[in-house]
Structure prediction request, 182 residues.
Amino acid sequence: MFYSNAQIVDFSESYQNFLSFYNTGDLLNAKKSLIYILQSNTQLNKSRLIAIYNNLGVVTMMMGEYESSLKYNVKAESLLNKEDQNSQDAADIFGNRGYLLNIKKSFDLSIEYLEKSIRIYHTLGVSNSKVLNSLSATNINISIAYIETKNYLLALDYLEKNVDLNIKYGLSDLPFSYLNMA
Prediction:
């Protein structure tokens, strides 16, 4: 898995290693895989760099390294250009930051990022299951922020929208919507 610097790193193979570690819950090695890709001499295009930094933000957040997570998330955002501001990458970055800010109990700021993420997801359409699943998770996260700020009507509104979304497209977040409604 970890090669000497003299060897050429195959991005696809290295990224698949990251996904394998991530999907089995081995966050430490998932993080190491992404850092290894960054430290290799491999030329990475902007899209790959955004994916690596955004995923580093997610992995470090899951590890409880919230300041590192925010640093990686901001780095991913800094790579977006004007044309990317309404892309799935942008929506994912803002949604992840909103979730992180929920964890840090910065609910008002979290709501700003989650609303931005939701607006972008709505412009991307419903043909992509990843967009739909991300939108569903973001709806749940914003409802949590609204519950925490005692704005129960808005929280309920997002949860009801999420129930409709999950039923219409057969998504898996339906139980989480009902749980948050309870």
Observations:
- The chain has nine helices and no strands.
- Confidence is low (pLDDT under 50) at residues 1-8.
